[in-house]
Amino acid sequence: MERDERSASPPPSPSPSSTAAESADSSAPTSRLRDRVGEHTLPILLGITALALLLRVVGLGERVAHWDEGRVAFDTLRYMETGIWEYRPIVHGPFLPHVNDVVFGVLGPTDFAMRLVVAVVGGLLPLAPWLFREHLRDLEVVAIGAFLAFNPILLYYSRFMRNDVLVAAFMLFSLGMFVRFADTRRVRYLYAGFALAALGFTTKENAIVFVVCWLGAGALVLDTALFRPHARQPTRAFLRHRYDHVRERTRGIDLGRVLGYYAGHLVFAVALATLILIYFYAPRTGGTGVGLERLASRPGLFPAVADQALTDLWEGITDWGEKSADDGGYDSLVDRFQDFVTRFLWALGAYAPALVVFAIAGIVGERYLADRPRAIVMFFGYWGLVSVPGYALGMDIWATWALVHALVPLAFPAGVALAWVLARGLESIDDVRDRHLDRSVDAVLSVTVAAILLVSMLAIVSGTAYDPTNTRETGQDHMVQYAQPTQDVRETLADVEAVVETTGDPVLYFGEEYAIDNESAAYRPPVTDRWIENDDGTSERVEENGNWYRRLPLPWYIERAGADRLSAHDEDELDELLRTESPAVVITHQEHDGVNNEELVDQRAGEYVKAAHDMRSPGDTTVFYVRADALEELESSS
């Protein structure tokens, strides 16, 4: 739809007031302030994006790594060291390990570097509405960009090395490129759309859910267009009108040639997406076997590499679906669904109240108050609404990061409603300036609504999303997922790394919670103590070592410090290793199965400085013993 056509149609309104429809009509006088915004939509959007990037990058490395972050970061370090990598659905797609392999090589393995790619992609989200500009008004583009930039949940998880923001951003930009292709018929958008969708599938398996949501939302929009009166025309008349319109526009055009042209580009675009998927999912075998790195010397391996990569992708998607169907420890899937929906609604009310209220207003206004509802707004509304119960059904554990997938589409109808408020405010300010004082109430009301929105978002952002010390104290319902260590461990971790790097002595894990039989098992993730030999001479891992994973996120910090690792299961082993190895650091879980590990180490480690920290929030206390002489040497040298 062309811009002059859409500007002539009334906008959706969250208010039944008749003045809304009148002021939105192109024949009605427009505000000078609104004109200025319309003339500078892209610069304003770029300014919002720049601020979004700044908020995501400043202080990015302050928060201690979450367990999930520590696991993927450790795997990336091992991949850098060995050149060996294989896809494992439990840690989601291969995008972050491969990209952070490059980032770590340039910036070094730091908490800042591991989150940087996610922060940049999340910071660019406000640009996405620009791709839909043919179907949105200027103020709506700006308002949507603001919601995507400053929503606390989107901001927090843009400062977190997880794939949720990545997959949401890539799939949203992919959809935008397809819409631009439909608007302009320029094939570069077709290629960009498929390439971005492929990147979405390299980040997380639930990219398939985005496609399902698009199909479902598209079907609902089509149903509304075909089987409800459209512009007060019966469905049959409407279909006849559209048919005549298409036939008139294609008169004199060689449709076969046109379709062949676009079909050829479609094939190449799909091929490009397939190559991206193969590149990311193909195993890296360190120069042996079927690995991507071997294609340079043996191109004939490409079919086997491609088959392995695409098979792994499909198995990852099905594995994700099977986990989603599991009851997750609840009495039934229904019980889990009810619990998760309740928690999601609570989190939306606590951390995204403005976006949710405006989204509902935008959907209701567009669906029931506009004379001709716009398909694009209803599409995003349907997509966002179904995502809340959909992810409650599809999540195997509860975490606020799942709401990213609902908030991104809901930002569009929310922006439509907010734009309506802003438009009224701009018009009222002009009226007051022109001494039409009878409109001053509208100006005050609009400015007040905008101020409340801004203050509420800033308060939530400063109190949660932008505070690295923000960790859960009690309860389950919080933006911070439970596997987040408390921030007070940061100073101790800095001492641990410094002492290890200075002395070159090992780190000793003590107790049945943390000790494993074979520390070298971490050389090639996943960490396991047990392998079996197959009849064909190959080896196969049969179980992962839970004790190693309970250490998270410590392996990330210990590995980047270059420390050797030791394990002591009992007091005899502890005594022996303290005597013979003189470890720089001893780490133990405070208590396990009724055994007070802290007390046992206290009796033996008299020359160590002790610090205790919660490695989950709350609870799960870990005790660190850092060698006193090494600390004293560090303090004297500094």
From TrEMBL:
For bias type Low complexity, the affected ranges are 16-31
Source superkingdom: Archaea
Alphabetical UniProt keywords: Membrane, Transmembrane, Transmembrane helix
**Name by which UniProt lists this protein:** TIGR03663 family protein
The yes or no answer to whether the keyword Hydrolase is present is no
Per its UniProt record, what InterPro entries does this chain match? CHP03663 (IPR019962), Manno-Trfase_MA4085_prd (IPR016950), RgtA/B/C-like (IPR038731)
Give the start-end ranges of region Disordered: 1-33
Residue ranges annotated for the Glycosyltransferase RgtA/B/C/D-like domain, each copy included = 92-223
Q: Which Pfam families match?
A: PMT_2
- Ranges annotated as spanning the membrane: 42-61, 112-132, 139-159, 165-182, 187-202, 208-227, 259-282, 344-364, 376-393, 399-422, 443-466
Name its species. Answer: Natronoglomus mannanivorans
